[in-house]
Design brief:
This is Allophanate hydrolase subunit 1. This protein has 239 residues and is α+β, with helices and mostly antiparallel strands. 25% of the residues lie in helices and 28% in strands. The protein folds into two domains: 7-87, Gyrase A, domain 2; 101-238, Cyclophilin (Beta Barrel), CATH 2.40.100.10.
Length: 239
């Protein structure tokens, strides 16, 4: 059983990490399914325990953040082991109804300066790149890099091109990028090396929302091509 190979290790004095073995693939969604089930089991085991601060999912791991001055590390470790056993054969938690998100995107031009390069590398027309990118249904594998930045799996095979050889010193907020088997949206203007094919007006992170991050692991995401006029018309509504 894969669950028997989950490795547990403390991250300094602030967290316990549960790591899946390398044999569990990320890009197919198998790792995500197992991690979602494991996180659900951890939430059950740790419910009501003082000192537990957060339980977060990575590409191949789940981290339990805790104040170990308020809860025994041995207690957290024992509960984590029970959660691992309890997650065996468990169904993947259902996606929240509100967590199927469609993001409008202006593809190409100044909004997607790498669209033509991606098309050339993939042996496709820019229109085919846009079509394939829109047709897929993606899943949020994890949040990282910057607040609200969602790593999305499910990118069609023909679009799986490598990062840029030279990263940009600034990638605008809302930029939609491709890197290997991943696609994602820059939640803030930051340096970045992903191939930028478009931009969305939707704010991926907003501290004024009850849940600042628009997306969470397990959520489904679709992209919808819009015109530049629609982008500017919707910008105020989305931010």
């Amino acid at each position: 059983m894969i669950e028997d190979k989950v490795r547990l290790e403390f991250m300094g004095v602030q967290a316990l990490l549960l790591r899946l073995p390398e044999e569990v693939p990320i890009e197919t969604g198998e790792a995500l399914d197992r991690l979602l089930s494991l996180r659900a089991a951890l939430l059950r085991e740790l419910e009501g325990v003082d000192g537990i601060e957060d339980i977060t999912i990575g590409y191949r791991s789940v981290a339990v953040y805790a104040r170990f001055e308020d809860v025994s590390p041995d207690d957290v470790l024992a509960r984590a082991r029970r959660a691992i056993q309890g997650s065996q054969g468990s169904p993947v938690p259902a996606t929240r109804p509100e967590a199927v998100v469609t993001l409008p995107v202006v593809y190409g031009g100044s909004f997607g300066p790498d669209l033509d390069a991606v098309a050339e590398r993939a042996g496709l027309s820019p229109q085919d790149v846009i079509r394939l990118h829109q047709e897929a249904v993606y899943r949020v594998a994890m949040i990282g890099f910057s607040p609200g930045f969602a790593y999305l799996i499910g990118l069609p095979e023909p679009l799986r091109v490598p990062r840029r050889e030279t990263p940009r010193s600034r990638v605008e907020r809302g930029s939609v990028g491709i890197a290997g088997f991943q696609t994602g949206v820059y939640s803030f203007a930051t340096p970045g090396g992903w191939q930028i094919i478009g931009r969305t007006p939707v704010a991926l992170f907003d501290v004024h929302r009850p849940s600042p991050s628009l997306l969470s692991p397990g959520d489904e995401v679709r992209f919808e091509a819009v015109t530049e006029e629609e982008y500017h018309g919707r910008f105020g509504a989305y931010t």
